[in-house]
DNA sequence: ATGCCGCCTCATAGGCGA
């Protein structure tokens, strides 16, 4: 089962590039972030015509996550538990069943948190505490699971071309990295780092200042796998070439292959 | 020190992103 995550930075702007990449990559499941669309305006038909089931959790103008899956999407749940006043659309989860086992797939768009310090950074840290709570709850269940999406976290210096430039940024500040590390340390596996070590692997390049041409990127789109899920990991890759194509998002897809 | 670029919208300027 091939599962991909992709922050598309607006479904309307990626109406050609997203299906083009999917036709090439042939993922079984796609976890989308920043659809920037309300549910009723998401062009589900485009994907349904290609054999995907579609579940969205959208909002107007900002944020928004979605699941596209060739397998049925069961027990769909929207919104990260822990704060009934949080109306930002950043979390969706569903169960898919492969040939061997069921898998709980959680799609997330973690808050950016800039400027830091400040209320937006506080919201990011609060959100990460809730994410840790959800991870703990899922670990108590029997179903293997993964949590994937745009984490807006640079885990280590090797995950940025210019780590010094990010030192005080909400994506790299110690409080944010520590919160991420605390979640991983529950027993989850960073799928990319389970397969590939060393610097120079990025999933985001800013539109500004020629970042792509200079390969001035950061790795902020991640797969965290539960122990039972990590046992099924066959591969994890970043589709970096997508950044150089026509009208790209500033993020590229990251995908895993699971024997499940 | 800031903007760079590109997304969005009760748009044509301003908020947001990373």
UniProtKB/TrEMBL annotation:
Keywords: Hydrolase, Magnesium, Metal-binding. Residues 4-251 form the Endonuclease/exonuclease/phosphatase domain. Its cofactor is Mn(2+); Mg(2+). GO terms for molecular function: double-stranded DNA 3'-5' DNA exonuclease activity. PROSITE patterns: AP_NUCLEASE_F1_1, AP_NUCLEASE_F1_3, AP_NUCLEASE_F1_4. Pfam families: Exo_endo_phos. The keyword Ribosomal protein does not apply. Its EC number is 3.1.11.2. PANTHER family: EXODEOXYRIBONUCLEASE III. This is Exodeoxyribonuclease III. It comes from Sulfitobacter sediminis. The lineage of its organism: Bacteria, Pseudomonadati, Pseudomonadota, Alphaproteobacteria, Rhodobacterales.
């Amino acid at each position: 089962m091939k599962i991909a995550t992709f922050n598309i930075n607006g479904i309307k702007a990626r109406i050609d590039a997203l299906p083009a990449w999917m036709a090439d990559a042939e993922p079984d499941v796609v976890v989308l972030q920043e659809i920037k669309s309300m549910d009723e305006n998401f062009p589900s038909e485009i994907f349904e015509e290609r054999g995907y089931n579609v579940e969205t959790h959208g909002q107007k103008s900002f944020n928004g996550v979605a699941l596209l899956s060739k397998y049925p999407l069961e027990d769909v749940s929207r919104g990260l538990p822990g704060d009934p006043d949080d109306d930002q659309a950043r979390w969706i989860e569903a169960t898919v069943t492969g040939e061997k086992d069921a898998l709980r797939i959680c799609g997330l768009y973690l808050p950016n948190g800039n400027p830091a310090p400040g209320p937006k950074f506080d919201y990011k840290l609060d959100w990460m505490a809730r994410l840790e709570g959800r991870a703990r709850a899922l670990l108590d269940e029997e179903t293997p699971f993964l949590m994937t999406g745009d984490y807006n976290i640079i885990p280590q210096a090797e995950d940025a071309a210019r780590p010094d430039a990010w030192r005080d940024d909400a994506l790299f500040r110690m409080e944010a990295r520590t919160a991420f590390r605390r979640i991983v340390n529950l027993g989850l596996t960073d799928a990319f780092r389970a397969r590939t070590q060393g610097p120079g692997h990025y999933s985001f390049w800013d539109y500004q200042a020629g970042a792509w041409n200079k390969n001035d990127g950061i790795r902020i789109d991640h797969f965290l796998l539960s122990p039972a899920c990590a046992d099924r990991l066959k591969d994890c890759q970043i589709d970096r070439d997508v950044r150089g194509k026509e009208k790209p998002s500033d993020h590229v897809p990251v995908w895993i292959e699971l024997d499940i």
